[in-house]
Amino acid sequence: MINQVTLVGRLTKNPELKYTSDGRPLVQTTIAVSRPYRNAQGETDTDFIYCTIWNRIAENTAKYCEKGSLIAVLGTIQTRTYKDNTDKTVYVTEVLAHTVRFLSKKQSEVKEPAPAALDMIQTVPLI
């Protein structure tokens, strides 16, 4: 049996680091992944895929990523069920991330060029 998932997409919200009752770090987030083809209207559809990230990977994701960050996730698909407040059974399908690669920096870490650096750019007149 093979259960392997590879996704590249953008975080739909800032990752929120939580801890389980036994102290394990956890991030549950959604990744927007564009489909590789266009629909009948010529637009690219997007799937929003629920991902669960554990332990050190969860801590690093919360520390280095934000809404809109481009990430790659390698993991497996898992399903689970639980009873909601009305005793209705809720079915969840999610990706359990084993590896997360950060493909972009936080916008707060991207530095703008200093104005003085712009002054040093010279243009050569065309003859």
From TrEMBL:
<dbReference type="InterPro" id="IPR000424">
    <property type="entry name" value="Primosome_PriB/ssb"/>
</dbReference>
<protein>
    <recommendedName>
        <fullName>Single-stranded DNA-binding protein</fullName>
    </recommendedName>
</protein>
<dbReference type="GO" id="GO:0003697">
    <property type="term" value="F:single-stranded DNA binding"/>
</dbReference>
<comment type="subunit">
    <text>Homotetramer.</text>
</comment>
<keyword id="KW-0238">DNA-binding</keyword>
<dbReference type="GO" id="GO:0006260">
    <property type="term" value="P:DNA replication"/>
</dbReference>
<dbReference type="GO" id="GO:0009295">
    <property type="term" value="C:nucleoid"/>
</dbReference>
<dbReference type="InterPro" id="IPR012340">
    <property type="entry name" value="NA-bd_OB-fold"/>
</dbReference>
<dbReference type="Pfam" id="PF00436">
    <property type="entry name" value="SSB"/>
</dbReference>
<dbReference type="InterPro" id="IPR011344">
    <property type="entry name" value="ssDNA-bd"/>
</dbReference>
